[in-house]
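Standup notes
- DV: blocked on the single-chain target, sequence here:
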Amino acid sequence: MTISKQEARTYRATLARLGGAQKSARGAPAYVRWVNRRLGRYFAAWAYLRGMTPNQVTAVSNVFTFAAIVSIAVFRPSWPEAVILVLALLVGYAIDSADGQVARLRGGGSPAGEWLDHVADAGKVTAIHLAVAICWFRFYDLDHAAYLLIPLAYVFVSAVFFFGVIATEMLRRIVAGTSRALGRGAATADTPLPAPALRSFIVLPADFGMLCLTFLLLPLHTAFGVMYSLLLVANSFFLLGALFNWFRELRRLAW
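- DV (later): unblocked, structure below
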């Protein structure tokens, strides 16, 4: 299939529009900041020019992501399966960052679209660890059944982390809207904040993309178990720090 020069120019122009309408990089892990959002931008431009809606983009992302998650639980780990699994997870993750970009190109999203995206993400970040637990139970030679508590603990950490992010952002919006309605002048959130590169690398273990790449080790039972457990420990510490910071921030806010 050939692409005309006009189509190529339109695609480049759409990419340029997206380049100036990105989320803040502050606090974003390195993979999502420099890899995932860039890949999502390419798909968003393609999807927008073909008239796809943000909800359709979300659906495509979920097909890749949940097919990969199901394969973790269903198929015995092998190198071909691990490579295909990781590629599907990363493609789904990249497309997941495209739905919001398509919404911005179309002039803004909708509450229903944001709800759909968050519900799908909530399912993704918990189901993937349940799939790991099933995989370990079915295919790994575990010395003790207590090892299954590792992915179950990861389910808890991921669920609380995800809810904390969503609840904190929702309360920020409510307080900002109430402050503007009452004329308190608390509309300084649009001011760009610095986004240190070092911070993005420090929080890299909390990135879903990092977890996706770890599945390349799935056929190596011990290596995957060690790496997966280290990610759990890192995310547990990040969660404790985030909960403390979120609570301290919200205590300073007033309705």
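- Follow-up: Residues 149-181 form the longest helix (33 residues).
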